[in-house]
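Colleagues,

For the teaching module next term, I've prepared a clean inverse folding example: a structure given as tokens, and then the sequence designed for it. I'd like students to try predicting residues themselves before seeing the answer, so please don't circulate the second half yet.
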């Protein structure tokens, strides 16, 4: 088991931290650490001027990812920062007068300003500059422009500045910045009132100490759902069959091997959950007897393995539910919708996510998937081929809207 629930919306969120060329750039180091402490995944973007004050290496070591500094340098971090859905919030701290001007005008001559134009997520900026600059009509005008566009601009504080002046221009306090980022993310915390139990991956049913029966599931879909639910504020318990994937941050992960172990782990946690999402590809049959020692060929040319059925975990839990919402998956290769509809009914589900595992570009092991969501009340929602992480969000939105009574927009920050 790992991970604990935090009361903020920052947990699991992807924060792009922009650092511009102010003497206060060193304060972004402490800010980065604080964001990480709150469970955020932070990517740092520095302007060239910022690199004169603090080296990118410092941020690289502390963030654990490459720092984006050059628009013409191609690396993974750069690529994801310019894809709108890959960032949940942009925080620019410290923000110089030069940055405010470029952002207000929509200039895009470096990584940070380019990213600002491509993203649609909330943006928080914390300016820091000399007092005379902060009150200059040009800066005032740019700040007004940014605020009118929905950017959260945190007023700098009054105090001694690098110039020797005592005036308004100091980067505002860390707690205030974190609270502003948290508040900006609140709208994305619509699952904060839910405890979600997710299953993922295949199961392995042992034949003997070296062999087992299993299937092609990678666990990617279930892990993506666990990650998305956590990022939207839910408390998440993930029961995972064998998978090479790492536990998503902030998610309590229980690892199992067999269908029986999965059933046991899910049963133990079902009562406490509010939503069960059964994405695991559970074996339907297991060898009747597990051989104590490795089965030998001994010149045989044929071998018959006797199998017995496993428990249908989803059907069993659905029958035991008190108030839980129960969501299943249907992995099909033909007549996808009618098979899914049958399972929805037979297992007494609220929702089923049907997918054709033979489709090109989707299915087992792939990073993408397409699905059709069917509800017990007759709604049908087709979701085209998209990354599994995005599909996970679409599934959660459908569960929220179709089963949990629509969106909840406020976030608990007790
Ligand atoms: N499931 C389960 N326990 C099982 C088998 C399946 O809980 N022993 C769940 C899966 O996690 C999934 C749903 O039931 O959410 C449908 O699984 P799927 O493999 O698509 O169908 P089955 O019910 O196993 O039926 P079939 O193999 O005949 O398609």
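(Answer key — instructors only)
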């Amino acid at each position: 088991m790992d991970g604990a629930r935090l009361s903020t919306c920052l947990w699991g969120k992807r924060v792009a931290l922009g650092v511009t060329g102010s003497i206060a750039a060193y304060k972004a180091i402490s800010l980065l650490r604080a964001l990480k402490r709150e469970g955020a995944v932070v990517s740092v973007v520095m302007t060239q001027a910022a690199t004169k004050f603090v080296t990118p290496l410092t941020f690289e070591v502390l963030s654990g990812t490459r720092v984006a500094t050059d628009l013409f340098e191609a690396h993974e971090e750069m690529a994801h920062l310019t894809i709108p859905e890959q960032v949940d919030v942009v925080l620019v701290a410290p923000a110089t007068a030069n940055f405010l001007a470029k952002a207000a005008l929509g200039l895009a001559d470096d990584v940070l300003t380019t990213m600002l134009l491509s993203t649609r997520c909330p943006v928080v900026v914390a300016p820091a500059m000399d007092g005379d600059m902060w009150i200059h009509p040009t800066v005032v005008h740019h700040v007004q422009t940014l605020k009118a566009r929905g950017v959260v601009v945190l007023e700098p504080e009054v105090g001694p500045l690098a110039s020797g002046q005592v005036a308004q221009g100091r980067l505002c306090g860390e707690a205030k910045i974190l609270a502003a980022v948290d508040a900006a993310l609140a709208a994305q915390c619509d699952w904060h009132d839910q405890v979600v139990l997710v299953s993922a991956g295949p199961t392995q049913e042992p034949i003997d100490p070296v062999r087992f029966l299993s299937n092609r599931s990678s666990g990617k879909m279930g892990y993506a759902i666990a990650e998305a639910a956590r990022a939207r504020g839910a408390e998440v318990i993930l029961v995972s069959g064998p998978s090479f994937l790492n536990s998503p941050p902030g998610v309590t992960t229980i690892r199992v091997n067999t269908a029986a172990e999965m059933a046991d782990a899910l049963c133990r946690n079902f009562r406490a959950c509010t939503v069960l999402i059964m994405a695991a590809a559970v074996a339907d049959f297991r060898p009747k007897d597990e051989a104590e020692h490795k089965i030998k060929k001994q010149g045989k040319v044929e071998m018959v393995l006797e199998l017995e059925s496993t428990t249908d975990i989803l059907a069993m839990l659905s029958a035991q539910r008190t108030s839980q919402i129960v969501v299943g998956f249907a992995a099909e290769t033909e007549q996808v919708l009618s098979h899914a509809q049958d399972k929805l009914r037979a297992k007494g589900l609220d929702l089923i996510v049907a997918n054709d595992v033979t489709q090109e570009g989707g299915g087992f092991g792939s990073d993408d998937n397409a699905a059709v969501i069917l509800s017990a009340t007759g709604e049908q929602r087709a979701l085209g081929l998209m990354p599994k992480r995005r599909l996970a969000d679409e599934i959660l939105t459908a569960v929220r809207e179709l089963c949990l009574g629509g969106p909840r927009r406020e976030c608990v920050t007790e």
